[in-house]
């Protein structure tokens, strides 16, 4: 395995993944806009109202999605003293990738899983399931 994800052959894989994520994001926005457009046209709204409503909807969704995820996942934020090895690993990986260190939270689930969410890199939260910590 390559020491740095952004070196060598892995760079092509990262770029492919990034491209696929952008395409997926664009398609999701297009589908959402199309649904809102169809509903509002059905009720006789004008195009400017439709665009304003769609923009407001997407801004609201962007703003509240992390909060919904926090509540739905039953997250518990941890300090450096609780899992020092995990914090050290995350700090090293963030430093190697030249990104801000995310906050770390534990989710009370037995499945070994981890994910990151947030609005920006600076507001990112790394969520680790308890099952992953037991491996």
Fold and architecture overview:
- This protein is an alpha+beta fold.
- The protein has two domains: 10-63; 76-133, Metalloproteases ("zincins"), catalytic domain (Zincin-like, 2-Layer Sandwich).
- It contains four helices and four strands, in the order H-H-E-H-E-E-E-H.
- The protein has helices at residues 10-42, 47-72, 84-97, 130-133; strands at residues 76-77, 103-107, 114-117, 125-129.
- A four-stranded mixed beta sheet has the order 1-2-4-3.
- The longest helix is centred in the N-terminal third of the chain and has 33 residues, at 10-42.
- It is elongated.
- The model has no long low-confidence stretch (mean pLDDT 86).
List the helices and strands and how they pair.
Elements: H1 10-42, H2 47-72, E1 76-77, H3 84-97, E2 103-107, E3 114-117, E4 125-129, H4 130-133
Parallel strand pairs: 2-4
Antiparallel strand pairs: 1-2, 3-4
Helix pairs in contact: 1-2
InterPro entries: HtpX_protease, Peptidase_M48
Cofactor: Zn(2+)
Organism: mine drainage metagenome
């Amino acid at each position: 395995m390559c020491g740095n994800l952004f070196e060598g052959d892995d760079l092509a894989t990262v770029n492919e993944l990034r491209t696929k994520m952008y395409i997926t994001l664009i398609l999701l926005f297009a589908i959402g806009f199309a649904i809102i457009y169809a509903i509002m046209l059905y009720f006789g709204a004008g195009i400017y109202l439709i665009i304003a409503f769609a923009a407001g909807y997407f801004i609201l969704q962007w703003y509240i999605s992390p909060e919904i995820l926090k509540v739905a996942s039953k997250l518990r934020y941890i300090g450096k003293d609780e899992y020092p090895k995990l914090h050290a690993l995350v700090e090293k990986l963030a430093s190697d990738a030249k990104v801000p260190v995310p906050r770390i939270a534990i989710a009370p689930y037995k499945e070994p899983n981890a994910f990151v969410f947030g609005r920006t890199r600076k507001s990112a939260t790394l969520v680790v399931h308890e099952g992953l910590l037991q491996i």
